[in-house]
Specification:
This protein is α+β, with helices and mostly antiparallel strands. The N terminus and C terminus are likely disordered. The chain has 2 domains: 275 residues, no CATH class; 229 residues, Gamma-glutamyltranspeptidase, small (S) subunit (Glutamine Phosphoribosylpyrophosphate, subunit 1, domain 1). It has a 7-stranded antiparallel β-sheet. Helices cover 36% and strands 14% of the residues. The structure holds 6-diazenyl-5-OXO-L-norleucine. The site of 6-diazenyl-5-OXO-L-norleucine has 16 residues, from loops. 6-diazenyl-5-OXO-L-norleucine (DON) binds next to loops.
Length: 575
């Protein structure tokens, strides 16, 4: 993080100097860029065995479920974007679903107010997990190695254990003393054997998770959705007042979604379709911004930042107005991603003055609540040129904090991504717009934005990020960095990020970008501009002008890595 700030500060003070630059890790043999080094190594070992990008992505996802328990998962859900070497692009939707017994008012107290404790933690918080079905679907369609082979590195990590990083030790100690400590199965899985607190360098062995992963590897995804793992989930739910049943699990299917597509200068942008709001909002913002010629203003100029904030404000308002699960509501994707719409929206932007979010969104006034910062994105490329952008999540860090008894994995708390109070949208942070209300079997709206950028038929950038609603704006900054400002992938990832989500009507800017001069100039334009903490974790692959791919890990994550294919040695690291 500190290193990033230094690099970013240099960008504020001077134009990029292209001498002896850190461009990332070059590799034409394949790359896995992710937030937890041993999981990146697991994915890269699959590339070394001759696996393709999807094989490596599936291996990385399973391995992150072991080494990065705050967000890596088999008990959550997400989205995978795949581009084959021949240019076929697919989106895999493995977002969680509302259980069949869920209802629109299930998170309301008797006085009609929302009870956040029910969506934050515990057995009512999880949606029906999608990860294992999603990885199965990706592998069935595109994988080259056997399923068992791609699950195996994760089994090994869980069974033999791996060396904990300082971050993971700190995270687990905090959890065990806090929310996870309330659930005996969570303590049994993640507590230090013999008691005491974890320290950097300790070995974390997860025998129940190893057993579960081994079963998934040898029996396939059905064991999770229809076999003994499904039984464990359903029994646990029943015993503790949760809603997920065997029927929910047996019915769960991952879906192929046609990615949303936009163009920006001479780039093609492919991003995740609904039920993610990410692709639609990203393309809407790019369409709004393209005519302004931001490059001449500079990436950290108040003039460019003002226009970006105004684009964010408007795209997030459209998100609140229209976005939800397309299997349940009609989402006007074509309209929202059209240039005509961008033109109409841009006509309301005053280049010299901030708009008012409340005035713009009188029809829907709402103040979306802050979302916790835990999800994880990774990017993969193989030597044949196939790429994968995958973002998946448990929602909050460690999800519902509930480990399934005897099965060793954490369940998500994704139900909190639904609008929980029908009809009430207010400045306190409750949204009640219809598109994202809870319905049995519906997928909750997401902001996850795995993205693939193509130039003249060749991949130029693979990116994505965690960060709740900030995700879309993090991806916007990385994409603009490369496609508008002509930065390298490393510079674009290091660039300070900012976030405006329509309401609350303020913009937060990462420290390196929040200089007193920039804050003063944005305030003079009428923005409530604030210095923020770190935003996102964009594990990225960038293809240089000579066609060399570079793995660009995000230095905001201490344990991140760009791994190149090699055989796996002793598992280490982790967070
Ligand atoms: O799907 C979503 O948009 C959220 N559940 C993602 C949560 C998230 O990114 C939290 N952390 N980084």
């Amino acid at each position: 993080m500190r290193k990033m700030l230094v690099v970013a500060a240099a960008l504020v003070l001077a134009p990029p100097v292209h001498v002896a630059q850190d461009l990332g890790v070059p590799s034409k043999e394949g790359l896995v860029v992710c937030t937890s080094a041993p999981a990146c190594d697991a994915g890269a070992s699959v590339l070394a065995r001759g696996g393709n990008a999807v094989d490596a992505a599936v291996a990385t996802a399973f391995a992150l479920a072991v080494t990065h328990p705050s967000a890596g998962n088999i008990g959550g859900g997400g989205f995978m974007m795949i581009r084959t070497a021949t240019g076929e692009i697919t989106g895999i939707d493995y977002r969680e679903k509302a259980p069949l017994r869920s209802s629109r008012t299930m998170y309301l107290k008797t006085d009609g107010t929302i009870d956040p404790s029910l969506t934050n933690t515990g057995y009512l918080a999880p949606g029906v997990p999608g990860t294992v079905r999603g990885l199965e679907l990706a592998h069935k369609r595109y994988g080259k190695l056997r399923w068992r082979e791609v699950v195996e590195p994760a089994v090994q990590l869980a069974e033999q254990g791996f060396t904990m990083s300082a971050g993971l030790a700190r995270g687990l100690n905090g959890q065990l003393a806090g929310r996870m400590g309330k659930f005996p199965a969570s303590v049994a899985a993640y507590g230090k054997p013999g008691g005491g607190t974890w320290a950097e360098g300790d070995r974390l062995v997860l025998p129940d998770l190893a057993k579960t992963l081994r079963a998934i590897g040898s029996e396939g995804a059905d064991v999770f959705y229809k076999g003994w793992i499904a039984d464990r989930i359903a029994d646990d739910m029943k015993a503790n007042g949760g809603l997920i049943t065997r029927e929910d699990l047996a019915a769960y299917q991952a879906k192929i979604r046609t990615p949303v597509r936009g163009t920006f200068h001479d780039y093609d942008i492919y991003a995740m379709a609904p039920p993610s709001s990410g692709g639609v909002a990203l393309i809407e913002m790019l369409n709004i911004l393209e005519p302004y010629g931001l490059k001449a203003k500079g990436p950290l100029s108040p003039a460019a930042m003002h226009l970006e904030i105004e684009a964010m404000r408007r795209a997030y308002l459209d998100r609140a107005r229209h976005l939800g699960d397309p299997d349940f509501v009609t989402v006007p994707v074509a309209k929202l991603t059209s240039r005509d719409h961008a033109k109409t929206v841009a006509a309301t932007i005053d280049p010299a003055k901030a708009s008012s979010s409340v005035e713009l969104g009188r029809d829907v006034v709402t103040a979306p609540p802050a979302e916790p910062d835990e999800t994880t994105h990774f990017s993969v490329m193989d030597r044949g040129g196939m790429v994968v952008a995958n973002t998946y999540t448990l929602e909050g860090g460690y999800g519902s904090h509930v480990v399934v008894k005897g099965a060793g994995f954490l369940l998500n708390n994704e139900m909190g991504d639904f609008n929980k109070k029908p009809g009430e949208t207010n400045l306190r942070g409750d949204i009640g717009t219809p598109a994202n209300l809870i319905d049995p079997g519906k997928r909750m709206l997401s902001s996850m934005t795995p993205t693939i950028v193509v130039k003249k038929g060749k991949v130029a950038l693979v990116t994505g990020s965690p960060g709740g609603r900030t995700i879309i704006n993090t991806v916007l900054t990385v994409v603009l960095g490369v496609t508008e400002f002509g930065l390298t992938g490393r510079e674009a990832v290091d660039l300070p990020r900012m976030h405006h989500q329509w309401l609350p009507d303020h913009v937060t800017i990462e420290k390196a970008g929040a200089t007193s001069d920039i804050l003063a100039k944005l305030k003079a334009l009428g923005h409530d501009a604030r210095g923020g903490g770190g935003q996102g974790d964009a594990e990225t692959i960038w293809i240089g002008p000579d066609g060399t791919p570079y793995g660009v890990n995000d230095k905001r994550s201490a344990d991140s890595k760009a791994a190149v294919p090699r055989s796996l040695t002793a598992p280490t690291g982790g967070r």
